[in-house]
Write a structure and sequence with these properties.
alpha+beta; 2 domains; four-stranded antiparallel beta sheet; 7 helices; about 170 residues
Length: about 170
């Protein structure tokens, strides 16, 4: 059984900040000329009204990831809780053996809770926060940001090498 809890096509991102539109467009063209699909490249202009959509264009995939990760990881947490409770009821201390209902309740509850907490980390992607924050700051400082979305580590390295030296700053998430 293969359980896939990520429904986003591209969870990795590279962001490069430029001082003007021409530099950002030249960088975009350089990427396209080197085989990067224009579909995964966005340019965020200063005070861009579409910044949210450009930073996280897969909102439907993110929503599906949230639902799937909470469902699957909550279920996995519940199963682990049941297994631990069963072991404690069979061979554990007398307290767990004499109160099996409470033992199951406590371990299933905490198993589901822990699974849901892990799902929150998976779906919120805290690793994206620094990139998002820097991009928003750059936009407010009247800079242009080129965002490329990909999961391919070789492609991320290619993008970073192509943009190195031409950008004011660069960030990535994988």
């Amino acid at each position: 059984m293969d359980v896939e809890i990520q429904d986003e096509k591209h969870t990795g991102r590279v962001a490069a900040v430029y001082s003007d539109r021409d530099s950002a467009n030249a960088a975009k063209q350089k990427l396209i000329d080197n085989g990067i699909s224009p579909d995964v490249i966005n340019i965020i202009q200063p005070d861009d009204v579409n910044i949210s959509r450009k930073l996280e264009p897969e909102s439907h995939g993110i929503a599906k990831t949230i639902v799937k990760s909470h469902g699957w990881l909550g279920l996995i947490g519940m199963i682990i809780g049941v297994l631990i409770a069963t072991a404690l009821v069979i061979v554990g201390p007398e307290m767990t053996q004499s109160n099996p209902l409470y033992t199951y309740f406590v371990f299933v509850f905490f198993g589901v809770t822990f699974g849901m907490m892990v799902a929150g980390i998976v779906s919120l992607r805290p690793d994206h926060d620094p990139l998002i924050t820097k991009t928003i700051e750059a936009s407010h400082e009247h800079h242009w940001t080129l965002i490329v979305q990909t999961d391919d580590h070789k492609e991320i390295n290619l993008i970073k090498n192509l943009l190195k030296g031409s950008a004011i700053s660069m960030r990535e998430t994988i």
